[in-house]
């Protein structure tokens, strides 16, 4: 029982990180119709920048948090402006291929700008252990779960009530008609890239708090991708919940069947889900464009 | 030789500059898709303020292309205005971005309604008012609800579940939310029952008569359009082949033959029509 609870909680914690990155995928898909295969790499870059801030400027939590968010916004905006905007109106397939190219470039950038060694992100938080009913839980794990839940609520309200949130849904539904109504698709796309970069970046920073930074961190994107397929590529909230589901499942499989199972559980799950519900558990429509 | 050659055939030379009360004007527009397909060839159309101008023609004549050029969205289909200008209140606007055109008061209701299916009626209207402040948008919405009480009744419902006629009303209401000076409608009667079409056309007439709105009406349904229009243009294969006041067009034998389905000599067989079309000079 103790073991099961331990697995569940650590599954939830890693699942929340997947969920955050999966929401990053979904925000971009929902407003631009693209799958961003560089999501894991963008997450990694944001985490590295947070680490750089913590080691060079200040280890203060707020400085690092604000700096990381600003860096993530900038990263999203730059990628949208430099790489994605020129691709506007090109076939979806070509544009998705561009994100794959971008992924490789960002991955190598880590070795150019930083180095190939693992680093610990230490901001004096997140590594302490709290005992909950006899189970040791890291404060960082509690923090990431709470952050995911808070962001889920905030994003739900954003898409439901804010004018720009509704506009993002309108652009996703029919971008040409949105243009006819005077909605600037470019601005909506830029916002989506910035928001996606921030949401996923938060996941990356939490990952770095609990585990370590390394150039292999981009693989988080590969773990989060099944989560967003599972929840529905166009379902931002569903993707967040999909992350939790993947995290728990892979932890249980790793704990009870064998640690090798951890790597493949997520993908095994999406194969099953895609056979039953091709548009994901919470998805609204067929995702034939991918 | 055919005796019914239209007398108003434009010859491709620039027409005399229209009077300055002309709100929107296409001047010698040429539109090319993909650098290869010429969709519009040297078309000049004038839309005077406060009137309804009908743009008639069959599929592929270039009617929708003209509206897309007007709204600045040709680029989404690799279309380019290669020649000519589009003037709105005297300014050349053919290079402006779609949102700037909406702010200046040009809006179109796209073909096939294109409501945002997953959004509620309220949210659809909110998107129409995207370029306006929240206070302006609320005022506009009350006016739209007054015009279409049905939308008010169903305001929290998902737009995609409404009937075709209701969706058309929503599409018009959404366009009115932008506070337009010029409202262009792309085939508002498409796929609707005759009774619903009557309602839609009543509203269009009211927009002109009560709200003093200028309407550019694109239709295949020539009968309906000429009934309420003040002036009409007939497009075929990217050129204006005929234009005139609605009365003159309705009286024109060719228009009766090919667009209104009326024939002097009783019903004709399809072979006669084909023969007639072959002789028609403007189709060459």
Folded structure, characterized:
The complex is a heterodimer of chains A (290) and B (284). Chain A has 290 residues and is an all-alpha fold. Chain A has eleven helices and two strands. The radius of gyration of chain A is 18 Å and the shape is globular. With 284 residues, chain B is an alpha/beta fold. Chain B has three domains: 13-105 and 180-246, 3-Layer(aba) Sandwich (Rossmann fold), CATH 3.40.50.300; 116-179, no CATH class; 252-284, no CATH class. Chain B has eleven helices and ten strands. Chain B has helices at 63-71, 98-104, 121-128, 134-147, 149-153, 164-176, 194-209, 222-228, 246-251, 253-258, 270-279; strands at residues 22-33, 37-48, 52-56, 79-88, 91-92, 106-109, 182-186, 214-219, 231-236, 239-245. In chain B, strand 9 (231-236) and strand 10 form a beta hairpin. Chain B starts with 21 loop residues before the first strand and ends in a 5-residue tail after the last helix. Residues 1-18 of chain B have low confidence and may be disordered. The interface between A and B is medium-sized, with 19 and 30 residues.
Order of helices and strands of chain A: HHHHEEHHHHHHH
Class by alpha and beta content of chain A: mainly alpha
Question: If classified by CATH, what would the architecture of the largest domain in chain B be?
Answer: 3-Layer(aba) Sandwich
Query: Which sequence of SSEs, written as H and E, runs from N to C of chain B?
Result: EEEHEEHEHHHHEHEHEEHHH
Strand order, sheet with most strands of chain B = 6-7-8-3-9-10
The share of residues in helices of chain A is: over 70%
Q: Taking Cα atoms only, what radius of gyration of chain A do you get, to the nearest Å?
A: 18 Å
Any low-confidence stretches of chain B, pLDDT <50, length ≥5?
A: 1-18
Give the oligomer, counting copies of the same chain as homo and different chains as hetero: heterodimer
Mean pLDDT of chain B, to the nearest integer, reads 86
- Biggest sheet features of chain A: 2 strands, antiparallel
Distance between the termini of chain A: 42 Å
Poorly predicted parts of chain A? 286-290
Strand sequence of the main sheet of chain A, in spatial order? 1-2
Shape of chain A: globular
User: CA-to-CA gap between the ends of chain B?
Assistant: 15 Å
- The total domain count of chain B is 3
Biggest interface, chains and residue tallies:
A-B, 19 and 30 residues
